[in-house]
Queue: 2 jobs
Job 1
Amino acid sequence: MEDQTFIGRQPIMDVKQQIIGYELFFRHNAEAKSAAFEDDFKASTTVLVNTISQMDIQLLLGDKLAFINVNEEMLMSDFLELMPPQRTALELLRGIRPSDEVIGRCQALRALGYKMALDNPHLSADSQLLMQCADFVKIDIQTADIPELSKIYMQFNAPLVKLIAEKVETEKQFEACTKIGFKHFQGFYFARPETFSAKLINPTFDSVLGLLNKVNQDSENEDIEAGFKRDPALSFKLLRYINSVGFGLSCEIESIHHALTILGRKQLYRWLTLLMVTAGENATPPALMKTSITRGRLTELLGESYFEKKDRDNLFIVGVFSLLDAILKMPIDQVLEKVQLPESVTDALLNRGGVYGPFLQLTEACEDADSTRILELAEHLQMDSAKVNECHMSALAWVETLGV
């Protein structure tokens, strides 16, 4: 059986939760628990070449860095130079020995413009020799308690080196790392809060929810337009989005009335779901917002050949709304009490069930680069890995065009 290949992408953020780069994960089969190039060089280079050849780096990354894991054999090969130097950080895996040849190769790559990132140097006895080449140092915070983490930070902190706290999974961990001095972070804390607490939805969210309900109930255009006019910021956001390059309209939308005429109800509903994750004074962290919108687009693309247009709109809504609990910091069932959605959408959001549930599950597996789960769900949906990857790449690229 031919190997199935998958790609994953996880954001790396600064202290304001602005995305500075993405770690790209490549898996050459469903059993691979780590980056493909740790197993077989020939097979893994084929995977990476095929993946790179299928994606537009500019669209995939925007203006961000790509962090790619490399072992010693990959580091010493010319193959790495397929990636654009100014946009690539090479993450040196711990098995790399700091020989004269390795140090020389790292220096040569840096001279070309590549960045170097060390993977958990505190766990390697001879990592200090590689520090002279380091632009980034990544520390897995699960390998140390807070006092130890503070010592590790002091050991590797240097004026020209950016330390990245890796596997940050909760807000508490994020705050602890920030207190130690870390200014860059990677992990799931922005999308998977540890606990939820009841939170009043601010007026802008209320406005969006009200408009979503009006559109869903097929209210008159005048009623919907009046809803926008009560919230100037919301009107501005809608006009800005639908005039963006990602929307693809040939004419400029100048008024809400014009927007309603041009868009139609289904498209307006879709854009309101986008506004849901970008509205509010307490802005949604950029990484969470982007993850939410990417989920919407990927869920839609995965189900594109299975459903008619109206159902594809629902797939988009399922993906975007699947992170509303994290965005609003309240349980999803409480969120859904405030907006009237089709039962099939609610079933997918609450139980990952119904006709849309499997597509949301596959989207979440892609987000986690969980190859075993991806393959299992893809087979259930009679979809091959090439199709899953194509949808994933397209979704990531589409979200970059929105400028969010």
Note: Strands lie at 6-14, 19-27, 65-70, 88-92, 115-119, 136-140, 162-166, 184-186.
Job 2
Amino acid sequence: MKGDDIFSCTLSNGLRVVHIANDSEVAYCGLAVNAGSRDELPGKWGLAHFVEHTIFKGTRRRRAWHIINRMERVGGELNAYTTKEETMVYSIFPREHFARATELIADLVANSQFPAAELAKEREVVLDEVDSYLDSPAEAIYDDFEDLIWKGSALGHNILGVEADLLTITGDDCRLYLDRLYVPENMVFFALGNMRHDVVARTAERYLGALNHRLNRTVRTAPAIVTPFHHSKAIDSHQSHTIYGVPVCSMYDDSRYAMSLLSNILGGPGMNSLLNVAIRERRGYAYTVESSLALLSDCGLLTIYFGSDAEHVAPSKRIIAGTIDRLATKPLTDRALDAAKKQYIGQLCVAGDSHESRIIAAAKSLLYYGHVGSREETAKRITAITAQQLQDAAASIAPNRASTLTLQ
């Protein structure tokens, strides 16, 4: 065991394993899968998310009711989520039930049957989720924006899918998706809790070592860079919703650290972010203004969202443009840059303090980078960012490169 209590190994079938040992009586385990909505085929938009829902609906050994109760009867729970490029399926439970949870996760991946009656019921649930999402313009605008900026790409559609496609998805579609992508070389098994490393490795080998499908992924194609656009869409809402966004680097580009710091300076969770101070605190133009950074395997997207009254849209956009221009043309002082780095490193430490956040971050690091990164490594990379690198990052999202979408 290493000093930081992190262990990793590879099973006989190539499945990678990461375990974080601690003294908690609550444990986690699951599978991180390098597959998401961009890996769907045309005409099946929403399949990745639908599989995430229906994987719990029956296996060769268990019906849906038995799956639900398998962990809940011992006080545990099952969770899952889907993004553009990844899916997580995992359980939280009292640590003595680690083998029980691992066996269940393995059964879901290897033996899910997707019975027609259960699919019909869950289809209605997912369609209700789509409707609920569309009723929230502050959330739906992100998908509308991605549809435009990634137009023609597998990235340019809602993760939840569209009704026409969801109505055609069959159990065979779901099983084929699992067989293509939920395979050892495309997954990481993760565990956190007060278990010995050798027990984790043996248990994973026992229940997951027989998986032997080979990866059959449709080639991911980076989206074309679109000409900057400035669109407005009429909606029935008292508030306007606006996104300013620019394509940026991928998760493998060294400039991602400077871009992440820039995003945090502009509109991170702190009330002292530049745009929150300029737009909300000083002028009262918006209740919410925030910057988000999505880094994918071959591209990325930085977005700045704000919700405001219609008359404040134009001045808020000017403030965003002016703030970015200043960061691109005038370097931060050493004192300001050091303060920004210290705040960001502290925020990452706080955000990653939960056991769940920590093990999922470790699983993703092993899945995407082939090793488990540490907080110290990340802090070192952030500390090394120079004023020039931050300027370069700001220049890459300058107003002449940006697109905007307003729903009002």
Note: The first strand starts at residue 6 and ends at 10.
